[in-house]
DNA sequence: CCTACCGATCGGTAGG
DNA sequence: CCTACCGATCGGTAGG
């Protein structure tokens, strides 16, 4: 265990503000959330927030850099187990969905709010932290049991991210609106299609 | 050709307002766009807008119901050609990407704005129009040459939508931030993985 | 950390 | 279709 420093009063207040802003912004969007709402929910006066953040934009920036789903996922990628490609991919899909699901729908709204209201201005920074990790995973994938088709590894990774992220997004947003036939065991089927798609076909 | 009625003055003004609002909202988001901005861009006074729409929300609703990507795509689905599953899927992917790409990045922003700022409130209505079309396509898919694996057709369709939509979204938003290895021929690879994933494996 | 305030801008309406 | 206005709310700051 890593020993945590006791947070100072200022650090605690800062966290309170971020928690409050996180809840409101992921629920209402950035422009629709006022500094007054954030202050009230944090149990502070409006002016006090400006002792911790110079502007509303800076509050949002701090949230993105500390809580964006892509950043939340980074530590998880290293700990996925699996002997074969099959096992590894299935474990990864379920671990990621589980992790993201714990914070539903806040994380997805944070992601989309950043894209819509800031035109993805923070994405290069966020993505920069992700890429090396993804390439590591691609490398690892090549060393597992199971013959992979001749598809560039980074593309394979991107397709994997797509498979499960799209599942997650549609499930969160359209779930109740979809007919049941589109939902039953969907994640398992998605993973199955993906695996079948990247592995060399065995002679039946 | 279907003969179009001459639009009345009121209809033309309405369209001018929607065009103006569409441009601003897809660029800035809903909350960040004011009725005054919309009026100015449309060459009208603020008050005049309220002769055509009862509220700001109604302006947005009209835009979603007439221009949401899912609704834009509907007419396209029926005209996809292809003798084999392989051909059909490839044609569909490229046709859809081409159609969506023509309106980039407005369409994607419209979609995401609706989700973030309205919590997908209009989605059931939009989706309702899509489902019968998708099921038609699923039916057609079964009749093409090429043996499909035993995966429920609606799931197969959802996975397809996911494949190309995720390609489209990541390309639009992360394109420049991605390393080249993640981008080269990505759509073709995605389609390849998908096709390999849904077709019964041939004995080599 | 709070109170009290600033100018600006918002969605919407009355009246013509 | 416009002018002129309403009350409400915004992000941010001065001063203590």
Poorly predicted parts of chain A = none
In round numbers, the mean pLDDT of chain A is 89
What is the CA–CA distance across the termini of chain A? 49 Å
Shape of chain A: elongated
Oligomer: homodimer
**Whole-number tally of structural domains of chain A:** 2
Can you write the helix and strand succession of chain A as a string? HHHHHHHHHH
Largest interface: A-B, 58 and 58 residues
- Biggest sheet architecture of chain A: none
* Count of discrete alpha- or pi-helical segments spanning 4 or more residues of chain A: 10
- Which range best describes the helical content of chain A: under 10%, 10-25%, 25-40%, 40-55%, 55-70% or over 70%? 55-70%
Polypeptide structure, described:
The structure is a homodimer of 204-residue chains. By secondary structure, chain A is mainly α. Chain A folds into two domains: 9-66, Homeodomain-like (Arc Repressor Mutant, subunit A, Orthogonal Bundle), CATH 1.10.10; 68-196. In chain A, 68% of the residues lie in helices and 0% in strands. In chain A, helix 1 (9-28) crosses helix 2 and helix 1 (9-28) crosses helix 7 (106-118). Chain A is elongated and about 65 Å long. At the A-B interface, helix 7, helix 8, helix 9 and helix 10 of A face helix 7, helix 8, helix 9 and helix 10 of B. The first copy, chain A, binds a DNA duplex (16 and 16 nucleotides) through residues 13, 34-36, 44-48, 50-51, 55-56.
